[in-house]
Every structure is written in structure tokens, then in C-alpha cells.
Input
Amino acid sequence: MNTKSKTLSLALLLVVFVSTSSCKEHVASSDEQTGSLREAGSVNAILGMTARRAAHTATLLPNGKVLIAGGMICDGGGLSSTEVFDPTTNTFTATEDMTVARAGHTATLLQNGKVLIAGGYKGDYLDSAELYDPATDKFTSSGKMVTPRSGHVATLLNSGKVLLAGGVGTGWTFLADAETYDPNTNTFTATGGMTTARESHTATLLKDGRVLITGGHKDRRANITIYTSAEIYNPASGTFTAAGNLTVKRHKHDATLLADGRVLIVGGSDERDRDGAYRNAEIYNPANGSFTAVKNNMNAPRYKLQGTTILLKNGKVLIAGGANRAEVFDPATNTFSFAQGDMGTELLFSTATLLNNGQVLITGGYHLGNIVSNNAWIYRA
Output
């Protein structure tokens, strides 16, 4: 499916995935990446999740556990099932189902310790949202969003509100509109729209409280447009403004705030989708609004890795998704190094979550043949 003529949004991918999935268990393959590269940390397999999942969410809870929610699998697309990972035992336990099955949704830890789960896809684009309360282990409806959306971005603002922007909506429409969720009133309210419709984009909270939006695409197949453009959301005014251009057009990439306030942007692809996956990276500097290419490339091409780059406690960045091996970026040297361990899958639409002990939980994803994995791994620096 990953050819230029079938470059699809996450939402469309869910439809295609449901109709073509083989529903096989994933079996780890041999190492596809070789060489004598310096390795940084290690990735080791642990007992798998209770269900196979891709395009799911994984959220660190205040108690140090991780809520795994929804995702896609064969025979019906979105899942309502959830589970909780306990880092003291490295095990997963099935827990309460969500009120709605969903994949391609977002999950955001609120300042009150609850988790907002919003939107997604399950046969149609969802405007529903719900709250998970770890104190009761229950999900409750939190009303409807302004716009049904999947493949959007969600960012916790310094005010405690959540910004939800872009994605795909009813009729495969690509969305420029945005809205905010207020946990004090449990309501969604429209805010200023982005300068252009985007899906497969990124959103990064900057140290000054603004949100950087980068890349993404609109339309699909022969009509797809992949962006170099970026913009910034200002919560004070509720508006988006243009913020320059990436060094290359990107979608299905990832972005991470570095300890010094800059933003690392990695991977993604061009119109060829998997065949055009990038090894390159760049850095956004909010001090002067510039995007600068990182001189050294990643060791593996990566795309569909949104949410799997993690700022580690040592200031380095783990890049876990989009390839069968994880690697680490060192901002002091601008270099990428493979971590030890072969995960045996491209980890497309997987998750990565920084644990309180400094380790990183990596879960699920799929690879060629639409084989979804329930596998899980722990990265240790």
C-alpha cells in the first residue's frame, strides 16, 4: 500500500487497513540495519500487551503507570479496549473499555491527573471525547468536540487547556480549524484556524507557551500536497501565524522540544510515502525563527513515527518509531547513534512513553503486510 499512488492520511489508512489486514501475529525479523555504528543504550523485549495495536495512545499517569488506549487492528478498525502498564513489574493488565472504540485519536494528561481522549476514527470520524480517571479506573463522556476529527494534534497549554488542531474530518476533508478543551467547564470551543489545512503534522509546546506546528499534508494520492510550511499558535490571542519553512517538505514526521528550547524535527516522507522516507533531520530555533538542517543524518529512514521521539533525562533524544532499531540524537554533537537491540518491525504508528525511572516504554505498531504487533520493549540509556 505504501506507494506514491496510495499515499494516504491516517484516517484513510484505517479504512484500507481494516479491509486488508492479515491479522497475523508479528514475528521479529532479523536485523535489517547493519554496520559498526556506535550504539547508545539498549532496547529489550518484555511481555507483550494484552491486544495488538497500532495508531493507539500511551499516556504516563501521575502514579507512574501508563494508560494504553484504543488503536486499530483487523476486523473492524478501532478498538475500545485499554490496558495499563506497570513499570514495577513490566506487565500489562486489561482495564475498563473506553466509551467509544477509536484509532487515530489523541490522549492528553490534564493538570488534574485525568486523561482527555478525543476524536479518532471508527467507521466514521468522531467528535466524541471522554475522560479517564486513574483514581477510579473509569472512562466517562466529556461531551462533543466542535468538529469530528482524526489524525489531529493535541497539546496541553500552560493554562491547562488543550489545543486540538487539524486532522481529517467527515468526507475525508482536511481540516484547518482548531479548538480548545477547558477542563474547568468540560467544554470544547472553537479557536482561530491554522493558516492551512493539515494532517500528519506535528505540534510542539515551546518554552514561552506558544505551539509550533510543522509540515503535514492535505488531499491524497495524486492530489496530495506536502508542506514545508510551519506556523505558531499563540494562546494569548487564539491565533495562528506563519513561522517560516522547513528545509524540506515533511509529513508523517515527529518533533521534540530539546532541553535548550529548540525543537528537533526528524524523518517523515515525501509523496512516495515509504519509498520516500527520510533519514534527515532539522532544528527549529525559536530565538530567531529559523530552521536549520542537522549535518548528520539518522542511521535509518523513518516515517509514521509521530509521538515516538522522546527527550531523555540526559538531554539526548530517543527516536523509537519508524524503523526496526531505535537510535539516539545527541544535541551536543549533532549525531545519531543506534541503540542495541532489533525490534524486528518498522514500528509504524507505534508509541513511546518516558517513564519516571528514565526508561522508555515502546509499544505496538505495524509493518509491511499490515501485521499489527502486541509487542512491547523497554529502552534503557
User: Anything to note?
Assistant: DSSP finds one helix and 36 strands in the chain. Helices lie at 10-20. Confidence is low (pLDDT under 50) at residues 1-38. The chain has one domain: 4-380.
